[in-house]
Amino acid sequence: MSVLVWIEQIDGQAVHSSWEVLGKGRELADSLGSPLVALVVGHGVEAVAEEARGYGPDTVLLADDPALERFRLQPYAAALQEAIRRADASVILASATTNGRTLTGLVACQNQAGLAPDAVDLRIEEGKLVAVRSVYSGNILSDIYFDTDQQFASVRPRSFPAPEAGEAQGAIQPLPVPVDEGQVPEKILEVKPADTSEISLTDARIIVSGGRGVAKDPELGFKLVSELADVLGAAVGASRAAVDAGYIPYKHQVGQTGKTVKPDLYIAAGISGAIQHLAGMGQSKVIVAINKDPDAPIFERANYGIVGDLFQVLPALTKEFKKRLGKEEKE
Ligand SMILES: Cc1cc2nc3c(=O)[nH]c(=O)nc-3n(C[C@H](O)[C@H](O)[C@H](O)COP(=O)(O)OP(=O)(O)OC[C@H]3O[C@@H](n4cnc5c(N)ncnc54)[C@H](O)[C@@H]3O)c2cc1C
């Protein structure tokens, strides 16, 4: 029996939230009295396996093959299956990124095992995993118990603190995964790099989001949102209404049909606070709402509310933060 954690990597860089899961995995493995195994899949990713050794696993399995260079569901599922077999894993965890959710979903189905997607906490009871999920836009926390021998969970990024990297431990063991390219339906024809200067929404400690409230001048509205985000080192989010209206691309959408985020600070400008938006950001530690309507539902959820026009409030905040953070431009 073991606890197995998939360490996601993109272009040879580990996805940061994978370390959060590995850190929690150590705690779970200790409660079970079983080993912790990390799985790294890719091509030329020894450095990620080496980095994983610093986060406390007993073993790091390294599936390295040209066919595994980029995430494709079928070969990665084969690698995870092979790792489960090798590690005799009963608890299988991944970060709840798009890939993490997809991968755990497929492999749990293949193995007819229980899966708790997007869990916000994990613990062990009577030798089995118990996963906590947040439902009804964070109003209820539900405990998920498993009645299968294998228990899968994907974990919402920022649910656990990232562990400090320590002394490297555990051996790296190669994990051969034969991939028959002819049997893989997904082919990667072209790779377009994303804008790496952009802060990822799911990893962000601070998010500034804009909604339909920018409607009278959407371009200026999102420029003001971005300027405040820049000063705070924050990611830019949006409501679905703003995305549907074409003010900003979908990748910025927060909510039920967008990204689920859990920053320390979420600033919502011109967002009414619909339940589907709250579903994605209601777990934020501190919520600040800027809305010209004092009765907007977002104020019921906000820790701090500013009743006012975002076109005036955002630049005022940006100016004040620049001053306080010593980021004023020299005249
Ligand atoms: C199945 C389903 C899934 C959905 N998924 C999502 C999702 O993932 N994410 C999501 O966000 N929504 C989602 N929605 C849509 C959701 O129901 C709301 O329609 C949407 O969140 C509203 O966006 P909004 O708050 O920007 O717009 P509105 O509700 O129109 O609110 C705009 C707000 O801006 C304020 N305002 C206007 N002008 C100004 C100004 N100058 N200064 C300050 N404030 C101003 C107004 O008072 C108002 O409160 C979903 C809906 C469904 C049915």
Question: How would you describe this structure to a colleague?
Answer:
With 331 residues, the protein is of the alpha/beta class. The protein folds into 2 domains: 182 residues, HUPs (Rossmann fold), CATH 3.40.50.620; 119 residues, TPP-binding domain (Rossmann fold). It has 9 helices and 17 strands. The strands form 4 sheets. Strands 7-11-6-1-4-5-12 form a 7-stranded parallel sheet, with helices on both faces. Strands 14-13-15-16-17 form a 5-stranded parallel sheet. A 3-stranded antiparallel sheet has the order 8-9-10. The mean pLDDT is 95. Bound molecules: flavin-adenine dinucleotide. The site of flavin-adenine dinucleotide (FAD) has 28 residues, from helix 6, helix 7, strand 16 and helix 9.
In spatial order, strands of the major sheet run 7-11-6-1-4-5-12
CATH superfamily of the largest domain: HUPs
CATH architecture of the largest domain: 3-Layer(aba) Sandwich
Sheet of most strands? 7 strands, parallel
Radius of gyration, CA atoms, in whole angstroms: 21 Å
Rounded mean pLDDT score:
95
CATH fold-level name of the largest domain: Rossmann fold
- In terms of DSSP E residues, the strand content is 25-35%
What small ligands are held by the chains? flavin-adenine dinucleotide
Number of strands: 17
Terminal residue distance? 64 Å
